[in-house]
């Protein structure tokens, strides 16, 4: 019933907005803990689309930190970083962190900054939003990361280059076995579309614009629809 209500809310919102919500799993592929983002690359075509990272790799303790093609495992100046979210236990708690994409014309590269007990970035825990199909491809980025001489722990920063978050990593309870939704799904970034889900908006530590906060609520509606669960 909750699913049906949320889904119809989304259908209304989708008709009004072209932005997409894409889920990226952090440290988990098909229910198994791995040093990966899943999917590792996504295409975002509409400004103000959102990408939500679900930290549910168990066990896991990862970050999503913006880097550059040139230096895959080092923070980009002015880049975002989610901070670490440790997971230990199949039932969570897990983490969610949502970016709103403001530039869909430039690739956004990111990595996991965890280095304990091993370095995740060089092991392939990197990702990209809108990587080029030729030249500086995602495969080339992974190869560069694998031989990175320097890996840096950045501090937590909500706003990045071409993308920003309005809230810190929030706690949620997503079934550990649920897999990525396989790309994107149209959803509501609109206030009216999200108004049915008053509970669950992640607490916001900084809020550059009210629209960004509304976007976070829209995502909660999306999550509820995608997983049929209550979001904390
Ligand atoms: C998660 O990793 C960070 C960085 O290595 C570390 O400082 C923190 O203590 C870890 N948290 C847990 C609960 O292991
Ligand atoms: C993303 O775009 C690239 C071209 O830049 C394309 O090769 C790839 O298939 C696209 N991926 C998806 C999931 O649409
Ligand atoms: C994106 O959101 C910002 C802030 O709400 C708004 O000013 C801008 O017009 C939006 N752009 C698009 C293409 O929807
Ligand atoms: Cu990691």
Explain this structure.
The chain has 232 residues and is α+β, with helices and mostly antiparallel strands. The protein has one domain (20-206): Sandwich (Immunoglobulin-like). It has 4 helices and 13 strands. It has helices spanning 2-16, 138-146, 191-194, 210-227; strands at 20-29, 32-38, 41-42, 50-55, 60-62, 65-67, 85-87, 94-101, 108-111, 126-129, 163-164, 170-172, 184-186. Strands 1, 2, 4, 8, 11, 12 and 13 form a 7-stranded mixed beta sheet that branches. A 4-stranded mixed beta sheet has the order 3-10-9-6, with helices on one face. Strand 1 (20-29) and strand 2 form a beta hairpin. The longest helix has 18 residues, at 210-227. It is globular and about 40 Å long. The model is unreliable at 12-16 and 176-232 (pLDDT under 50). The structure holds 2-acetamido-2-deoxy-beta-D-glucopyranose (NAG) (3 copies) and copper (II) ion. One 2-acetamido-2-deoxy-beta-D-glucopyranose (NAG) is lined by residues 61, 84, 86, 114, 116. One 2-acetamido-2-deoxy-beta-D-glucopyranose (NAG) binds at residues 43, 133, 183.
């Amino acid at each position: 019933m909750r699913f049906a209500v949320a889904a119809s809310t989304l259908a209304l919102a989708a008709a009004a907005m072209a932005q997409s919500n894409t889920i990226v799993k952090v440290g988990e592929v098909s229910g198994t803990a791995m040093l990966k983002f899943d999917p590792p690359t996504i295409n975002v075509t509409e400004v103000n689309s959102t990408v939500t990272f679900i930290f549910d790799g168990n066990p896991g303790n990862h970050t999503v930190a913006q880097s550059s093609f040139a230096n895959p495992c080092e923070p980009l100046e002015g880049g975002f970083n989610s901070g670490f979210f440790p997971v230990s236990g199949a039932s969570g708690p897990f983490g969610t962190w949502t970016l709103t994409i403001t530039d869909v014309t430039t690739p956004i590269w990111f990595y996991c900054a965890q280095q304990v007990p091993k370095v995740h970035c060089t092991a392939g825990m990197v990702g990209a939003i809108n990587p080029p199909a030729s030249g500086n491809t995602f495969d080339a980025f992974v190869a560069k990361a694998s031989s990175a001489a320097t890996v840096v722990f950045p501090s937590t920063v909500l706003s990045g280059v071409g993308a920003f978050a309005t809230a810190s990593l929030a706690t949620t309870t997503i079934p550990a076995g649920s897999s990525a939704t396989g790309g994107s799904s149209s959803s509501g970034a609109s206030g009216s579309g999200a108004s049915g889900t008053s509970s669950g908006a992640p607490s916001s530590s900084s809020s550059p614009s009210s629209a960004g906060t509304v976007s976070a609520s829209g995502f909660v509606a999306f999550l509820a629809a995608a997983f049929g669960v209550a979001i904390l």
